[in-house]
């Protein structure tokens, strides 16, 4: 763990500049009748989970270029997330992927989590790879497979994931299904859906009542003709069939170009079926780039919809599970995750600043320009000092990346761990 003194020393260096920016924002928001501390408190409460598989350098099928110091096991992944959380005070949980993160000693892991001020977020199943000595292959599908013995194996694996989750006090199972087909005619589309629905129902029945199943969709990849769960409509219909604690998971990169994601978010919240969110950035497809790096305005519009739904008492949507799901091929993974969380919080902060009364009025009166300008005005407001202040007040760094670099944390990790490569996507 990092000594808090180091964070404070770096904060002192940045304090004067930070105060200058914050004072301007305080005055600006005050003129708009917004209490800055109320916004800061909301930012402090917003926590984004870090997936265990994002702590190592990602890769493409053409290569992987690790920087060194990657976590070699679950314990070191937890330490990395602990470090991120210490720096930004906004990443208080880690998502696990089974079998990559099977805990060898659940009690020891729980103690380590506690020492790092963390909890387990979701447990993610993996039926997109065959594991060593697996009796049947997932080559032609898992929960949707034509053969019941393969489906049963995949169902059993998901149930096992819930068991691991129970040991570590998680309450969420995330299912992202890689099943699909590569060529027309390969798969009977309706039957594949029905088999998947039946398999998910079996898993759901074995989950404790206070657990949530998140069902993630993705339009293509690894299959390029059809995916069994390609879109939010399919996820939604499966949730409806499976049970009330099944929710749709939206991954920002899992949409075809130019999809109106904010509208999907609005629809799902309206139905009370938006359960979770995977943040990343997308240029062409499931690129897993840094959140907010490509289409920041769209990202803001998505957050605007989320905040609108969360603040509307008539919307009966459960609290959402927030997670980053990105991959870092050319950046330091920890720096990229810090950057992503910062982009998420800054965008959330902006969405909190939207004057919803004025917006509702403009919408009601069909004042198109005013409605749009209300959104543009907050989007163009520099809200970074709010996030820095939230972190500072919570005991974190004013500038987490500068502190990470200034304290030479990566080289310390390389000295300790060497150049081994972490498991990940
Ligand atoms: C594959 O596309 C993927 O990125 C999905 O988004 C999942 O959430 C993640 O892998 C982990 O299984
Ligand atoms: Mn995802
Ligand atoms: Mn993905």
Automatic annotation (TrEMBL):
Name recorded for this polypeptide: L-rhamnose catabolism isomerase
Cited InterPro entries: L-rhamnose_isomerase (IPR050337), Xyl_isomerase-like_sf (IPR036237), Xyl_isomerase-like_TIM-brl (IPR013022)
UniProt superkingdom: Bacteria
Molecular function in Gene Ontology: isomerase activity; metal ion binding
One Pfam family recorded for the sequence: AP_endonuc_2
Domain Xylose isomerase-like TIM barrel: 103-287
This protein's UniProt keywords: Isomerase, Manganese, Metal-binding
Acyltransferase as UniProt keyword: no
The species this protein was found in: Emticicia aquatilis
């Amino acid at each position: 763990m990092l000594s808090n003194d180091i964070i404070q020393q770096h904060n002192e260096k940045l304090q004067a500049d930070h105060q200058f920016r914050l004072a301007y924002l305080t005055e600006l928001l005050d003129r708009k009748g917004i209490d800055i501390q109320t916004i800061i408190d909301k930012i402090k409460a917003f926590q984004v989970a870090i997936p265990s598989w994002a702590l190592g350098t990602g890769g493409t099928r053409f290569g992987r270029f690790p920087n060194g110091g990657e976590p070699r096991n679950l314990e070191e992944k937890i330490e990395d997330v602990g470090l991120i959380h210490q720096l930004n005070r906004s990443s208080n949980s880690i998502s696990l992927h089974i079998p990559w993160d099977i805990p060898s000693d659940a009690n020891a892991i729980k103690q380590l989590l506690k020492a790092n001020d963390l909890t387990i977020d979701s447990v993610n199943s993996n039926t997109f790879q065959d594991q060593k000595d697996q009796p049947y292959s997932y080559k032609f599908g898992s929960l949707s497979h034509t053969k019941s013995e393969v489906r049963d194996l995949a169902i059993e694996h998901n149930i096992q994931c819930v068991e691991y989750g129970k040991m570590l006090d998680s309450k969420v199972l995330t299912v992202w299904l890689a099943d699909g087909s590569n060529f027309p005619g390969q798969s009977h589309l309706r039957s594949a859906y029905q088999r998947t629905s039946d398999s998910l129902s079996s898993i759901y029945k074995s989950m404790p009542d206070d657990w949530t199943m998140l069902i993630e969709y993705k339009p293509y990849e690894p299959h390029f003709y059809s995916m069994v769960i390609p879109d939010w409509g399919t996820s939604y219909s499966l949730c409806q069939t499976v049970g009330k604690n099944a929710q749709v998971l939206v991954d920002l990169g899992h949409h075809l170009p130019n999809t109106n994601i904010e509208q999907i978010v609005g629809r799902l919240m309206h139905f009370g079926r938006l359960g979770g969110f995977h943040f990343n950035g997308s240029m062409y497809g499931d690129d897993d780039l840094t959140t907010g790096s490509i289409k920041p305005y769209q990202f803001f519009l998505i957050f605007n919809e989320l905040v609108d739904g969360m603040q509307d008492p008539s919307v009966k949507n459960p609290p959402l599970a927030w997670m980053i799901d990105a991959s870092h091929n050319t950046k330091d993974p920890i720096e990229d995750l810090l950057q992503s969380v910062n982009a998420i919080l800054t965008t959330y902060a902006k969405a909190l600043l939207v004057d919803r009364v004025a917006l509702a009025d403009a919408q009601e009166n069909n004042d198109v320009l005013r409605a749009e300008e209300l959104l543009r005005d907050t989007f163009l407001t520099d809200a970074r000092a709010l996030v820095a202040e939230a972190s500072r007040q919570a005991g974190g760094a004013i500038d987490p990346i500068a502190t990470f670099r200034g304290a030479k944390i990566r080289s310390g990790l390389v000295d300790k761990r060497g150049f081994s490569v972490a498991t990940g996507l």
